[in-house]
Amino acid sequence: MASYDIAVGLPLGVDPEPYAKAGATWWLPEFDPGVRLDAVRGVLRDGPAA
Predict the structure, then answer these.
(1) DSSP 10
(2) CB-CB neighbours of 24 under 10 Å
(3) 13 Cβ partners below 8 Å, 6+ apart?
(4) 37: buried, middle or exposed (CB in 10 Å: 19+, 13-18, 0-12)?
(5) pLDDT band at 25 (very low <50, low <70, confident <90, very high)
C-alpha cells in the first residue's frame, strides 16, 4: 500500500471509478468559474454519485 495519496480533479458527472482503480485516492470535483456557492455546497453534501 502506498504511503501517499493521489488526487484527481474531474468535471462533475465524470465517473471517478476508473481513476480509483488506477490508484487515485481522492476525487476533487472541478467547478466552472462563477458557479453558485449553493451548487458547490450541494456537491460537497451529496458526495460522488453512486
Answers:
(1) E
(2) 17
(3) 49
(4) exposed
(5) very high
